Each structure stands twice: as structure tokens, then as C-alpha cells.
Automatic annotation (TrEMBL):
Needed co-factor(s): heme b; Ca(2+)
Record field: catalytic activity: 2 a phenolic donor + H2O2 = 2 a phenolic radical donor + 2 H2O
The name this protein goes by in its record: peroxidase
Endoplasmic reticulum in keyword set: no
Organism expressing this protein natively: Capsicum annuum (Capsicum pepper)
Lineage of producing organism: Eukaryota, Viridiplantae, Streptophyta, Embryophyta, Tracheophyta
């Protein structure tokens, strides 16, 4: 039954015209520096949970959360508490980037907490230099190869010029 429902998740994501533009690999991988890929980024404010997507580094990436919410609502009607938001997020990210070649391992557990402080302190900011970004990765036990691989996720989809202009043209602040 679980695998049948996962097929339904795959179909829901594939049928959603918006998911390709709105859900991207950054949304799947951004939570990694805070507490792992546990979907804590998409938690709503409640019972003392302060949103991570309100952190300085996550302000502009929440465009696709409505797609995740729609998928989760549809799944809850069919099979309540069967498929985690973390798995929905990773499947949506996979399908929105048309990387269906490999199977995505499932079985993640949803977070029950969020960390605004962890998000602000561990996710590289838009204006960080390369050395600052690498330093944040190293604090999480990641290396230069991890930085390159995870940064490659940002080459898929749409970005605003304000998200990367300084990193391209103004590293020293003099031009």
C-alpha cells in the first residue's frame, strides 16, 4: 500500500504544471545545514515553532510551498499520516528538475521543530564570499566537493538577479 501511495505522489507531482517552475532543488537541500533534510523549512508557525523560511537566507525561496501544501492535502485525504512532507519535498524537487533517472531513497521523517537561529547561522547568505560559504560547509562536516555539488542545484530553475549579482560583480566592493 505504501508503494502504491508513493506512485500517487509521483503522479501528483508530475501532473502539477507549476511544480517545475516553483519547486526546486534548493528547497530540498536548503534544510541540510540546519537539521538534515527533514522538511523543517516548510513548517508553519505554531506551538512555539518559529519559521525557518522567515530567516534572512530563506526569504526568497518559498515560492513553491503552495505546491507541497496541495500535494500533502491530497495525500492526507487518501492515506492520512502515510507519506512525510520530507519525502514529498524530495520527490517534488526530483520531478521538478526532471532527474527521474535514479530512484530517490524514501523513508525520511518529518521534523517537529525548526531553528531560525540555525538557519541564519548555517545557511550561506547571498552576499557571502566563497571563503565564508566554504567555512559554513566545513562547520557541517562538508567539504569543497560537497559545496560544488550542492551549489550545482542552484543552476536549475529561476533566480532573481539580486540573489547573485554581488557574487558575480562586486566581491571586493569596488566595481
Amino acid at each position: 500500500m505504501f508503494n502504491d501511495k508513493l506512485d500517487d505522489v509521483n503522479m501528483s507531482i508530475a501532473d502539477d504544471d507549476e511544480s517545475g517552475d516553483e519547486v526546486n532543488m534548493k528547497e530540498d537541500r536548503t534544510p541540510t545545514p540546519v537539521a538534515g533534510c527533514d522538511a523543517s523549512l516548510i513548517l508553519d508557525n505554531s506551538r512555539g515553532i518559529v519559521l525557518e523560511n522567515g530567516s534572512n537566507t530563506n526569504m526568497n525561496i518559498a515560492r513553491g510551498f503552495n505546491v507541497i501544501d496541495d500535494i500533502k492535502s491530497a495525500l492526507e485525504k487518501e492515506c492520512s499520516q502515510t507519506v512525510s512532507c520530507a519525502d514529498i519535498l524530495v520527490l517534488a524537487a526530483r520531478d521538478s528538475t526532471i532527474l527521474i533517472i535514479e530512484k530517490v531513497p524514501l523513508g525520511r521523517r518529518d521534523s517537529i521543530s525548526a531553528s531560525l537561529c540555525g538557519s541564519n547561522n548555517n545557511i550561506p547568505a547571498l552576499n557571502n564570499t566563497f571563503d565564508a560559504i566554504l567555512s559554513r560547509f566545513k562547520r557541517q562536516g562538508l567539504d569543497l566537493v560537497d559545496l560544488v555539488v550542492l551549489s550545482g542545484n542552484h543552476t536549475i530553475g529561476n533566480s532573481r538577479c539580486t540573489s547573485f549579482r554581488q557574487n558575480l560583480y562586486n566581491q571586493l566592493g569596488n566595481n
